[in-house]
TrEMBL record:
Key word Repeat present: yes
Region of interest called Disordered, as start-end residue ranges on this chain: 578-640
Residue spans of biased composition, Basic and acidic residues class: 601-637
Pfam families: ANAPC3, NatA_aux_su
Species the sequence originates in: Hyaloscypha bicolor E
Domain of life (superkingdom): Eukaryota
Alphabetical keyword list: Repeat, TPR repeat, Transferase
Gene3D superfamilies: 1.25.40.1010, 1.25.40.1040
Transmembrane regions: none
UniProt keyword annotation of Repeat present: yes
TPR repeats: 77-110, 373-406
A GO cellular component entry from the record: NatA complex
Protein name: N-terminal acetyltransferase A, auxiliary subunit
Amino acid sequence: MPQQLSAKEQSLFRTVVRNYEDKQYKKGIKAADQILRKNPKHGDTLAMKALIMNSQGKTDEAFALAKVALQCDMKSHVCWHVYGLLYRAVKNFEEAIKAYKFALRLEPESAQIQRDLALLQIQMRDYQGYIVSRRSMLQARSGLRQSWTALAVAHHLAGDLAEAERVLTAYEETLKNPPSKTDFENSEAVMYKNSLIAEQGNIEKALEHLTAAGKHNLDRLAVLELRATYLAKLERKEEAIKAYRALIDRNSEYKKYYDGLIEAMGLVATDHKARKAVYDEFAEKYPRCDAARRLPLDFLEGEEFREAADKYIHRMLDKGVPSTFANLKHLYSNPNKKALLPALVQQYIDSDRSAANEEPKRNGDTSKGASAAYYFLAQHYNYYLSRDLEKAMEYIDKAIELEPESVDFHMTKARIWKHYGNTQKSSEIMEKARTLDVRDRHINTKAAKYQLRNDESEAALKTMGMFTRAETPGGPLADLHDMQCVWFLTEDGQSYARQGKLGLALKRFTAVYNVFDVWQEDQFDFHSFSLRKGQIRAYVEMMRWEDHLREHPFYSCAALSAIDVYIKIHDMPLTNGTNGSADANGEDAAERKKAAKKARKEAQKAEREAATKKAEPNKPTREGDSDAKKKDDDPDGVKLAATSEPMADAMKFLIPLLQFSSKSINTQIAGFEVYIRRKKYLLALKCLLAAAALDREHSKVHEQIVRFKLAIDKDIEGVAAKSAEVIKSEF
């Protein structure tokens, strides 16, 4: 039988709960111990004490105590709820869900347990379970708009759009008074419902709903955009044309609006004259508009293109717009346009018009006239489709002569040296560009990146340190970790890999992996926050983005680099052995063992220090103490590099790559390299076939085909009969 508490002890138990909620952990433990002196087997108190200990960082002890609490009182929903919370804290969501379900069976009316369970279900994408939870939460609190919206979102994410729409309609029917026009939550819900109707393909109904319910909507832009889209899809051309013209009047730089207008007008792609007339109308109406002058260059040809491009280039170079080349480089896929653009710029230089602007502007680095034209030509000859580095260098020097203080010109010069392959020189020039404007964060970042490419890790960190928070314990690197500066961590890791410092390289790549994990976990807070704030459309978009999170090129780049390092570590003894230096191999292994032992000792020491600090969690920490909190037990990645199973560690990076970036040949090549070393021949063959399907002529694919054949012939005995049969038929 579970122990019963007296009235005084029940009051004390409520104090324990309040102390936990107020983060007064020391007081909470004291009050819990007071109850446990008289009732040592009171399950709920033991559970609350475990929860407080977990918040103090004593996770293992907390779990042990929670198990004792369950043994004392198996039928307490508090014990099961706490057990679930502990599992949630260590990211073991499956076990947490089991514990919550148990707690809910014992206490079906608990809104707190129900909410915790629902949040975990949506985090784990258990849509059917989430629908059940949300339905029971709606029955408990049917007067709350949030409950209805959450159920609609659950159906939407599970793919049942019609049911999601029905739920929102049902809520609208319960309203006695119409919501106020300034009610943000209602405004969002109306737009969300409209998107559900449109997603089902019922455009006519979506337009009717938008016209009726969206008239006074707070998101005016979304209403106008959707109305134009629906009218165009329904082929109500006159109205669609009017709607798109209104949108261009709001924002004359947005390409999508022009495309929509031209489509609504029914102009065919070959009717260049009529399409150009549309753009000319807006160019005249808005003299400062760039899009109306630039976009016709995409479809014009021959003399028409020459005339329009000449006007555009003159306008931009007279103004000295630095992004002129960036605006036009997409045209280089057309050989005629690629040849014509630099010729027009050369004509501009030769003409008298640029002479008037020969004298550079003195206030700032915005360059005009000839210097802007030289800058364009330098970028032209530096571009991969029209590369001639000698000419590029000649033109950038001319530009710098006219405008010696220009940051942009020096940046391009550094880029030209980079394409020469001279990382030392490019880093020096980029650093010079940085000194021209020390307050600019973009050039600061570029300078650091070029220093990393030249393997100047310390200098790069110092450069980045100019824009990090000075008071962060652990210096600039710790701040870059806190700010999740993924590009820096990746470039730094690649630099260390080139220098042969494999431990540090792995340290950086693992940090990037962890950043993506954090982004995955960060959505947890938004499951309740977005519904509370009524931000439904943004929430659904975020959920879909999270589902493809590791498709991001940042992840692919770091993961492929990490896999390369693990392959190097795996092959290290083999390389030494094949070179005939067996002693070196022995020495290498001994060194690695020694390093691992040292790393373990340091880790144990750090743990002991942490334990002594945790003994008094409520004691205010002094300024210098924060270093201990931030202390890393493996700052140089020695333990990571001393791994005895590098291929198993590489799998952590490889699996998401194969899942989300399977269309990348580099992913399939990396997959083959890992699987062939693990002797997983079927999986290696799968990667090889996928790589061959993507690019059969790739040099690495040819090499891997030969290596696969040799590996199979050598190890045919070790291959299962069924696998051998599949390999034979597929290879």
